[in-house]
Design goal:
six-stranded antiparallel sheet; four-stranded mixed sheet; mainly beta; 18 strands
Length: 315
């Protein structure tokens, strides 16, 4: 009985496969090292099948009774996949219903402990009628509300100057409102900023106000008015000529208040200058300046026991 090329089967290494020719169309070649089965089309070889050999390497197949198929293994640590933004984040409902608990595995010392910062989801408490809106504490700032990042309505932060802020409109960074202190949110927050000097300073400037070095303070303004105060235990001009001290709003580039004394017989006096303002919310800088309009050498006294200072408070 004759055998046609369609019935012929050759075998050997993949690299030993012979060249295809027009006179050998239909023959087959089985590569013993790769499991590939090829058919000669007269000008090249067509891959018609792949028969994987049994084994334990990347190019072999596992047998049905391979012990690896029933090997019980400890899961790879996967805590980060459950974080917000992970491939398998946990929803509120997932952690609310605990038919089987495994929280100890994620605690410190557990087999799959959380590390680093775990981002918090918006928290919507249930069971307390009248207080079920979403809210979360999202951290702290050095001063004022966040200026970067994305936040949800109801998020709140504390700043290191002693104020609290709540996000009233979601966004990047969203709209924030400062919480007023005392009396359930309607009273003043009190102290906003303070700066002092402990060494005397002098000026001979007649027409131009000059800074009292060190008496400058930057504060975060909320929704309430503020009072800016300058105080010195002793201001003099070495005679009977006037000395003027002014409060200046650096942010608005405007003088907001001034006071003066005229020493009698060379004796100085304490000086208190105060200004009540209703500036827009946000960061604002105030400073104290002085000059001697009648000439002479004006002096603002200060030492460690009796400093001169500028103070800003919410009222």
């Amino acid at each position: 009985m004759s055998v046609t090329f369609d019935q012929a089967m050759m075998a050997g290494l993949e690299s030993a496969r012979p060249a295809a020719t027009a006179g050998t169309v239909g023959r087959h070649y089985a590569a013993t090292d790769t499991g590939n089965v090829w058919r000669d089309n007269g000008s090249g070889w067509d891959l018609v099948a792949n028969v994987l050999q049994l084994g334990t390497t990347a190019t072999t197949a596992a047998a049905g009774n391979d012990s690896r198929l029933s090997d019980a293994r400890t899961p790879t640590a996967h805590a980060t996949t459950h974080h917000t933004g992970g491939s398998d984040p946990l929803a509120a409902a997932d952690v609310g219903a605990a038919a089987v608990s495994h929280h100890t595995a994620h605690e410190s010392g557990g087999g799959d402990a959380f590390t680093g910062i775990v981002p918090g989801e918006a928290f919507a408490p249930t069971g307390l009628t009248g207080a079920t809106a979403a809210s979360r504490y999202v951290g702290a700032t050095a001063s004022g509300a966040p200026t970067t990042g994305t936040f949800n309505k109801g998020d709140f932060v504390l700043d290191q100057s002693g104020s609290a802020w709540v996000c009233t409109t979601a966004g990047s960074p969203g709209t924030w409102t400062q919480l007023a202190g005392g009396g359930g949110g309607s009273g003043p927050a009190g102290h906003l900023g303070y700066a002092q000097i402990t060494a005397a300073q002098t000026t001979t400037s007649v027409s131009t106000l000059v800074d009292i070095t060190g008496l400058s303070v930057t504060v975060t303004i909320g929704s309430r008015p503020v009072r800016i105060i300058f105080y010195s235990p002793l201001v003099d001009n070495g005679g009977t000529a006037r000395i003027i001290v002014a409060l200046y709003d650096v942010t608005a580039a405007a003088q907001i208040q001034e006071g003066f004394i005229t020493p009698s017989s060379g004796n100085g006096h304490a000086l208190y200058v105060s200004s009540y303002q209703t500036p827009a919310a946000g960061s604002r800088t105030y400073k104290a300046q002085f000059r001697v309009p009648d000439g002479g050498t004006g002096r603002v006294f200060a030492d460690a026991a009796d400093p001169s200072y500028i103070y800003v408070e919410e009222v």
